[in-house]
Every structure is written in structure tokens, then in C-alpha cells.
Amino acid sequence: MNITIAIIGAGIGGLGFAALAAAAGHRVQLFERFAQAAPVGSGLVVQPVGLAVLDRIGAGAEARSLGTPLHRMLGHAQGLRRPVLDVSYRADAAGLAMHRASLFHVLWQAAMASGAEVITGATVSAAPLHGSGRRVVLADGRSFGPFDLLVDASGAGSVLSPLRPRSLGYGAIWGTVPWPEATPLPPDQLRQRYRGAAQMMGVLPVGQMPQDPQRRAAVFWSLPLGQIAAWQAAPLDDWKVEAERLWPEVAPFLTTITRHDQMTPARYSHGSLRRPYATALAFLGDAAHRASPQLGQGANMALLDAMALAQALRMQPLADALPAYAAMRRWHLRLYQGMSALFTPMYQSGSTLLPPMRDHLLAPFSRAPLVRGILTRLVSGDLIPPLAGQIFP
């Protein structure tokens, strides 16, 4: 049965679900608070199961044309020649590294092509029950609906989600730069360099932006949240000297960074809703769960949520679809939230004990064939089925 659906937020999860739901015949209105919807952020990795969702949406081919295949994640600790992080993808299932703007572009095109209606400049302030549905009330007083289902995909700034996550002590600054002509870094690998767990520099190839053939990279620098303001106030060259001292090969990637505002601060938190739905209301993406980006699963999780909710609506009446959606995603989310909580302090924390354990115990152990296979499936997003009870992809 086709229903009326309101979606809050034109991010990865909101656009992905809008494309799937409208293509299935539902009447979809998407509310976006910005006058012109646009992505926020820099590079990301769409893992193989996320790519399978893009293929279902019909956006996979264009995404691959803009992104770049990612075959390996490699990290070295200062002073050690052997890697302390080394995860390779399966030969037939690489990740896709891309700029958030490129992913936004392909999802926006898919949502528009599917027939979803977008209302911009719409800041949602409330979503009261109206009979068995929900109304959407905007900050400017406009009201829409009622809708059979409201989907909150408005991210960490959601005014509707009851999620109260735990703030993580470390964040990062991110920037997008041209890929240098002269660099020893391969264009199909995520590379990282660590000093203990307190400092981390990373370079991620992100392919190209829409309408721009220039190859680009995302660079990121980890630091405690309390030091972000100090970084913004200090001379930029001081940071470049510090970064190049940690990792000399990163120097060509920093030459075009001449202002602090070319690097965007990112703050992370951790937590999940035990019940990501209420009457005629579903939460997906960061409105339902948040974690460190250490496992590279953020875009994946939002796309999988969108796919699960669309599948549940296809198979069940609305009253049963929301519990079914939660059940499909429950164990996959719990596993990845748990693994993120376990691994993050080894790479982003003030601990002096965890980095030696990482470098001298866990890193050698991770090179065992069985463990390498587990790590490959972990980063690919399919260590366990991403949609419980479903054949996917």
C-alpha cells in the first residue's frame, strides 16, 4: 500500500530513502532547512554494502565515475617500519572513496528522478501526532500534512530525536586539496600516520567533484576537542611543520592550504537509540545512532538504514514495518557500534598504554590469515548480514 511520507533532512540517509520510497510509489516530501541543499564535510568511504544500496537506487554507476576505488587501508606509527594498520579489500569488492559533495550529487539526482518533492528553507520545529499520522510544523509557522509516516534523517542536529550521545574527547580537522602530481602515496589507498594515539594524520583519495575533473584528496588531522580553538588561533605554518615532522610525505598535500577555514572541524559522539521509531515516526542515520569515523562506516550506516526502512515498508503494513525496520538493523548496528567503541581509543585518545598494545600485540596478530579476512569483512560492512533476515545485496 502506498503512503504519504515526510522526510526531514537532505543528507545521505534522507536522500537515499527519498529515492527508494518515491520509486516504490509512495508520495514523498523532503524538508531541508537550507535554502539550497548542500553537503557538509570532506572525504568519506562508501563501503561495498553501501555501494550495493547505491546500485539499488540507480546511483551506483555515477558514484563510481566520480569516486575512486579504495583497495587498502594502511597506517604506520612513528618510528616503526612495519604497518600497525593494514586492511585490504576483497579483489571483487573494493570500497569507494569520494567527496561528500559527489555522493550528495548522485543521491540528489536520484531522489529528484524518483519523483520526490523537496521543500527547502524549511526548519522543522515540531512533528505532532495528528490522528494516526504526523504533521510537520516549521519554525516560520507553516504546517504540512498529516503524513502517514515521518522519517527523521536530520542528523546530529535533530530536534526530534531523543538520542543523547556521549561526546568523544577527540575530533579532527578535515580539508580537501588537489591530489599532488608528485607524491609516493598510491591513489587507491587510505594512508595514516600516528604518534601514539594523540596525533593522527591521514590522506584519503576522493576522486573528483561533479563537473570538475581535478583529482582530489581529503586530509585530516586528529586532535582533542579542547585544542581545536587553539589550533584555529595559532599560525597555520606551525601546524604544517608539526604535521610534516610526523609524516614528511604529507608535505605536497598541504601546500594549497593557506587559511584556517580551509580545514573544517569535526566533533564526534557515540550512542544509539534502543528503539529507533515511535508512532508514525522513524529515525535513521545520525538521528538514530552515532559513532567515531574510525571504521569508515558513517555513510554506509545511513544508506543501510534507508534500505532497511524501504524494505520493511514493502513487506509489511505500516504498523508492523517500523518494528521490522529496527529488527533488520539491530545486530549489525550493535556490532559496529561496539567495534567502533573498542578501536577508537587505540587511535584517538590520550592513552599511553593502548598504542603499544596496538603496535606490538594487536598489529602482529592482525596479520594472521583468518584475522585478516575478518578485518576485511569488518571494513567492508558485511561481517554479519547488514539487514537481518534479508538477502542483501
From TrEMBL:
InterPro entries: FAD-bd (IPR002938), FAD-dep_Monooxygenase_BioMet (IPR050493), FAD/NAD-bd_sf (IPR036188). Keywords: Monooxygenase, Oxidoreductase. One of its GO terms (molecular function) is FAD binding. Coiled coil: none annotated. Residues 4-315 form the FAD-binding domain. This is FAD-dependent monooxygenase. It comes from Gemmobacter fulvus.
